[in-house]
Amino acid sequence: MNLNSMHYPLSLLGLSVAALLPLSSQAQGPVDSRLDPVNVTAIRDIGAPRVDVTHTCPDAAASLKDSLAGVVYRMGEPGEMKVDFQLKGNEIESVTTKGGPWGYRQPVRRAVRELNCVNDGQTNQKFSFLVVFKHADDLSGRDEVVALREAPTQALAMAKSE
């Protein structure tokens, strides 16, 4: 294959691209000042998540214990998991989990979506709490295998920065 024969089509391509560039800049034309103005608004962050989940979801602790006890007994891994969710109306949306044993994440998200919560009318309906998993061998008496704890504000700030 002759290199000169390959050079010819490439130079033709370069000329055709160069010829099109002036046309594309002219295609935009002058700006029409009769266009309606566009208003841009931003949704402000609703702030730090609420930690009073049991106020809005009164049966959360019992419901999570019932939903997750079997998984905890099967897996047997202790740990602590941070859970966040958004309440829109009375529906739970945007459930996220962080930390804890990996195998608990999906069951926890599923259990949280099934909680019965009632919107209390506050504008901030983003919640954060901790779920604590205890190993059955660590239990004495009638301690719970799964427990819900309000997350301290310092823990939420540290988890947010990670």
Describe the structure.
With 162 residues, this protein is of the alpha+beta class. The chain has a domain at 53-161: 2-Layer Sandwich (TolA/TonB C-terminal domain), CATH 3.30.2420. It has 5 helices and 4 strands. A 4-stranded antiparallel sheet has the order 2-1-3-4. The longest helix is centred in the first third of the chain and has 25 residues, at 3-27.
- Structural class by helix and strand composition: alpha+beta
CATH class of the domain at 53-161: Alpha Beta
Overall pLDDT level: 74
Q: Low-confidence spans: pLDDT under 50, at least 5 residues? A: 10-18, 154-162
Tell me the number of helical segments per DSSP (H or I, 4 or more residues long).
Answer: 5
Strand content: 15-25%
| Radius of gyration from the alpha-carbon trace, in angstroms | 29 Å
- How many beta-strand elements? 4
Placed side by side, the strands forming the largest sheet appear as: 2-1-3-4
Helix content: 25-40%
Overall 3D shape: elongated
Question: Cα distance, first to last residue?
Answer: 59 Å
- Give the SSE order as H and E letters: HHHEEHEEH
Multimeric state of these chains? single chain
- Under the CATH scheme, which architecture of the domain at 53-161 would be assigned? 2-Layer Sandwich
Q: How is the biggest beta sheet arranged? A: 4 strands, antiparallel
CATH topology grouping of the domain at 53-161: TolA/TonB C-terminal domain
